[in-house]
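Hi R.,

Here's the chain you asked about this morning:
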Amino acid sequence: MKSLLRIVFLTLSLLPAYGGIAVLNLSSGDLQPLSLEPKSAEEPEWSPDGKRILFDAREGRNRDIYVVDIDSGNIERLTNGPAKEDHGSWSPDGKRIAHQSENDGNTDVYSMNTDGSDQTRLTDGEARDGWPDWSPDGARIVFSSERDGHREIYIMNADGSGQSRLTATEFSSTDPAFSADGSRIAFNSNRDGNSEIYIMNADGTGLARLTRNDHNDERPDWSPDGERILYSRVNLRAQSFELYAIDIDGTNERRVSSEEQSLFRGHWSPDGSKIVSQYKTIAGPKPVADKVAKIDSSLLDAYLGTFQVEGQTGQTFTFTRRGDQFFGQVNNGQHEELLPSSDTAFFPRNFPGKITFIQNADGSVASVIVNLGKPVMAIRVE
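And the predicted structure, written out as tokens:
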């Protein structure tokens, strides 16, 4: 006779809402939060002269781009369009800002003056283009595009002409960043399974993988001297975000943020002495609601067969084992993606969720964490 297991649904706060933006002093280790409005500040980047910080934040329904003067604390809103505008990047001379915008109905790359005037559309297609970064001489912009069905790295002249593709795989490549001398580009890609940091020559040749681990490494940023790359590590097992740096030959990887700091999306100061980043305060899971369901234990044992769970948000999840591969279906089977047996699976962009399998030492299921953004739901096998 088949036994039944209790599946307890917990609404969790694995990580609290964004803490905001802070500056990390690399010599002292001190972390100084910035007092910013709106408080939903993200994506910080130092200006070339080190006097201002660019960021984007949500106020109402839209996300817009802002700049704060570090000494005075004065904040200026640069965009106020009908749709989302974010991912800003300073030109090397500090006179222009490249960013992505949805103001014309599609996500494209734009540039504007540092006061928000003279918005110029640089890409114009049906696919999503974004994540721009300037070359050190200001002549080119590297960006990521989904025009090939998945994210690839492209490059173009600063006026939008001469667009060409640098990467060509069946996987996602995004968050490109130019080196200080303009000869190389760092980016993150999941071409080898999970997201790792790669570098290549500015013409797309000479690909090299820098990071190798079971977590997701993303958002690379070159040090001003071009010798190291800063990046964010998404560590869901530790329920934290961590900043790491690695030498450009793939050696000497070390954690930059402390265990008490949950930092991500970091950017070096022009003199290399500080890092500005987003931050959270580390906190463990806090159950705020329970819901009990029962399911056949044989369907959960080592992921054999198929089992289906309906979450508190009304989403239905179906997990299936096919040989040695595990698949998850979401929204009544509309989306399907290969799931690793004990890591995080990222569903397509139009599904804003993540699924994490956590196994016991004997390989049996310990828990399944389903993150839909709000709320986070854990399915714990009892």
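The chain has two domains: 4-12+285-381, 20-280.

Let me know if you need anything else.
M.
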